[in-house]
Amino acid sequence: MELLFLAHRVPYPPDRGDKIRSFHLLKHLSARAKVHLVAFTDDDRDLAHRDALTPWTATRTLVPRRKGQARAAIEALATGKPVSLTAFADPAVSAACADILSTHPIDTIFCFSGQMAQYLPARAQRVIMDFVDVDSAKFAGYADDARVPMAWMMRREARLLGAFERAISARADVSLFVSEAEAALFRGGGGKGRVIAIENGIDTVRFDPEAAFESVAAPRPLIAFTGQMDYRPNMEAVRWFAEDILPLIRRTHDATFAIVGRNPDPAVTALVSPHVIVTGEVADVRGWLAAASAVVAPLRLARGVQNKVLEAMAMARPVVASAAAAEGIDHDGTIRTGRDADAIADAVTSLLGNSADAAALGVAARARVIARYGWSARLAPLDALLGLDARRNAA
Questions:
Q1: 345-372 average pLDDT score
Q2: 25: domain CATH number?
Q3: Separation of alpha carbons 229 and 252, rounded Å
Q4: Is pLDDT at 393 greater than 80 in this prediction?
Q5: How far apart are CA 292 and CA 33, in angstroms?
Q6: Which of 42, 43, 49, 54 is nearest to 9 (CA)?
Q7: Is the link from the previous residue into 298 a cis peptide, with omega within 30 of 0?
């Protein structure tokens, strides 16, 4: 079997949410098919990872994404398309896909993220479409909180992208989402064809408090948040926590809040204070997780399974998440949740005040992750989608 894998971001190294999922999908598929990768790069550092992808790919085409958001928006308004598509429209990617399809006997196209679905050909290869989240619903949520004219742009994006998502689902053999909640949302919004959930997993060998990693000298008690810090939901989450929740916690605990992640937006760096640390990119997030007395995920807008939560659970840290961030995770009560600032603050305060309870919660969280979220178990349903079960039976 030969497979074309399309990704809106090069799936290596697996150091952020979307790249973690795409990398493990690529790794799983490469053990079952000859994989040809076509992906965008965000910067020159991504190009340096071309050789690192060799164990999992037969060919690798990496295309730098140079188009700015302003140009993508102008193109979208001129063509009647969603910005999500024009931002990733590139003739070099179209040419690369056409070349691979014409020179290799591609059985299946695995398309990771809706932005790449514009490159699906009219030919009849099997198509597995991994939307991950319902992106159109995300933009609808943005519109609710935005002002004119941005609210108009967000509603336009939600409408046009939603129509595109539904059209692609009718073309695909199967549409994947990161959680059953996202899959149900898509079905309820008019998604076509077969729609199923393939959940995220976690590497519990790497994310293990007993693994070898560099420790971090940090003030205690420390409350940590991890994530890509130019991503709007993460930016809004840390601002809410720093401005509305941390002051409530500091009434009883002299706690420091660490915001750990690459590319912090100016709105994030503006939060720096004697009690708020913004690290920027770190070589290894595990040291910060291990140093944390509690890890928080106070996202108001969250889609699917949050890798940041799974990583903290695997590191046996006590986690406090918003109801939205916890929704996609089958945690079985091994994390604390809150629906508003007071509830989240109370949960964190309780953990900081009782180290034995916090440690026990962390141990239970790690056990839950090991039992429920191993990558091999999460991705096993892909074999049937690829037709491998039928081939094995025939053999």
A1: 97
A2: 3.40.50.2000
A3: 28
A4: no
A5: 41
A6: 42
A7: no
Six-digit token pair at 58? Answer: 């037969």
Which amino acid type is present at position 205? V
* Residue 10, C-beta contacts closer than 8 angstroms, at least 6 positions apart: 19, 39, 40, 41, 42, 46, 49, 53, 62
Residues 168 and 244 in one domain: no
Report the C-alpha gap between 159 and 54 in whole angstroms.
Answer: 39
Three-state SS for 140? helix
Residue 217, domain member (yes or no): no
In terms of Cα–Cα distance, which of 170, 96, 183, 88 is closest to 131?
183
Amino acid sitting at position 88: F
Domain region containing 259: 222-372
Shared domain check, 189 and 66: yes
**CA-atom Rg of the chain in angstroms:** 21
Average pLDDT over residues 215-235: 95
Residue 179 has φ and ψ, to the nearest 5°, of: -150, 160
Answer whether 63's CB lies under 8 Å from 92's CB: yes
| Dist CA 125 CA 115 (whole Å) | 19
The verdict on 380 and 367 lying in the same domain is: no
**Which phi and psi (to 5°) does residue 146 adopt?**
-95, 165
- Domain assignment present for residue 171? The answer is yes
- For tokens 């519990």, the residue is 204
In contact, 336 and 391? CB cutoff 8 Å: no
Please provide the distance, in angstroms rounded to a whole number, between the alpha carbons at the two ends of the chain. Answer: 15
- Per-residue pLDDT, 395: 47
- Can you give the pLDDT at residue 391? 57
What is the per-residue pLDDT across 161-208, written as a single tens digit (0 to 9) for each?
A: 999 999 999 999 999 999 999 999 999 999 999 999 999 999 999 999
With 80 as the cut, is the pLDDT of residue 303 above it?
no
**Lookup: tokens for 304:** 């699917």
With vertex at residue 176, the alpha carbon angle to CA 172 and CA 180, rounded to the nearest 5 degrees, is: 140
Sheet containing strand 59-64, edge to edge, reads 59-64, 34-41, 2-7, 106-112, 126-132, 174-177, 195-197
